[in-house]
Amino acid sequence: MRITELLTKETIAMDLSSNDKNGVIDELVNQLNKAGKLNDVTAFKEAIHNRESQSTTGIGEGIAIPHAKVAAVDTPAIAFGKSKEGVDYQSLDMQPAHLFFMIAAPEGGAQTHLDALAKLSGILMDENVRKDLLNATSQAEILKIIDTADDEATEEEAAETAATTDSDSNEPYVLAVTACPTGIAHTYMARDALKKQAEKMDVKIKVETNGSGGIKNHLTEEDIDRAQGIIVAADVHVETDRFDGKNVIEVPVADGIKRPKELIEMAQDTSRAPFVARGNSSKSETTNEKQGVGKTIYKHLMNGVSNMLPLVIAGGILMAIVFLFGPNSFDPKSSEHNAFAEQLWNIGKNSAFALIIPVLAGYIARSIADKPGFAAGLVGGMLAVSGDSGFIGGILAGFLAGYLTQGIKKVVSGLPQALEGLKPTLIYPVFSVAITGLLMIYVLNPPASWLNNLLLNGLQSLSGTNIMLLGLVIGAMMAIDMGGPFNKAAYVFATAALTEGNAAPITAAMIGGMVPPIAIATAMLIFKKKFTKEQRGSIVPNYVMGLSFITEGAIPFAAADPIRVIPSMMIGSGVAGAIALGLGSSIQAPHGGIFVIVGTDFGHVLQSLIAIVIGSIIAAIIYGILKPKLGKEEIRASEAMSE
After folding, report:
1. Is residue 180 annotated as a catalytic residue, yes or no?
2. Ranges for the PTS EIIC type-2 domain (predicted)?
3. Whether the Cβ atoms of residue 243 and residue 177 lie closer than 8 Å to each other
4. Over the stretch 531-563, which tens digit does the pLDDT of each residue have?
């Protein structure tokens, strides 16, 4: 679609008389209304102001692009006005705005909205176009400038596509990803600022946009392999594990607009330290087909878990604080009732914890199907909660919603272009939510609920030797990879049990997870001569991390000497988990280490400490005995580094 199909003589206001932001908005809204584009002026103006309250549409370089998508619009349109004196529009670069484009899109017209913004952003990044528009004296001249720039932009886009798809070219180049919270203006402004600057610098660049219509111009594995560096200009989450080992620059999306030259130069600086993916994982594959089924499922599951964890930690810590007021301080019927504790409980238990399963399912679905899968995943997660299928149901709901949405995308891919805008706003959410919901209610929830209750009843019946065996297994799993798949699997299982009222698994997980850093620090105290001075400098940090339930403190030692460290830590953590459950410890929060042990299980603090101490000493002694003495070269290197 050409911009001048939306920007016409009737929607051009030319020279604006207003000298403030609200006045400019009023003039442009009135221009659209006079052109017959609106059916409710008040509602449209309110939508424009609501968008401005989220973040300014004054994008810098003297440009403002206020926009709204609302039922008050009859026909999609763009209004234009200019002010040579300039207006304080609270722009990103704090400079006055001179050129104003107001975009009006009807509900269901998402693609028109996005295409118009994307094209405009590219055109307006050209300084000559901005200068010509500001000096134009007639509506016809404005339209001619825009038409000419539109033609040039289309030709450039075609040339860029041909260049980036040239399979014969192995020339290295720079990549970028842009994304903003709304996925509209700033996403594309950053893209075009980087492209324009790269052209000036004679640097090849490919930019992926994570907009509200989904990912466009996706960076392939081949692109990433060839890239000198990658710029991530985003204010929202962008999948970055795929960039493991590359030179990556992560900045806010506004920096992509304001300082593209500096970012491109940094991306070309190959001396920078390489980016390391979360969890020190090996380089991520960019396509599920090349990852294999197991790795693909794990990746999607971990995406859900990583987004769920902030709710788990925040809710758990708040619940631990509540217990400091008394075991029943949150209950209005109890004599221990405390009003403040009750509100903390409402925030932690009834709000944060209530969102855990829906968020887990939502982000699993989003990992599979991008934004279109998110709504169905959330709804599936809510139905798992109401259907009593718990975490098992939530995980199934996430995968169901994600792959179902992918299937819906393929089914409707052949629809006419005119219906493209209805896909993300109507077709995907309605069909994916409805079908996911029905399948959860009638197909997945019944067996998942049965399995969930069977598992919980089995946990409730454990006692004596059996419960100590549970503690041994979960504790050891926490130390196998210290933040990797086994660790996360044990932690998710333990958290799921806690949300259903069984604290035994999370008790073993936390006690077992605290042991490795503490054991490493203890080993350095007992076997001092087997560790370098530099290593011994981490004794205090490891004790602090261990007491805080940050197992990852032991990772550097495990990575350097896995054959000795991992088995010894597994033994110590397993013993600690078994002792804790055997002595009756019952931690009621999913994170926080010693702080929540004191807060939620005060009656068993001594028992928990005994378990941690015994497990840590066992692990430290085994590791210390297995570890060889320092060689002369290691000692000399250590002394040289300390000088």
Report:
1. yes
2. 297-636
3. no
4. 887 778 888 888 988 888 877 678 778 767 888
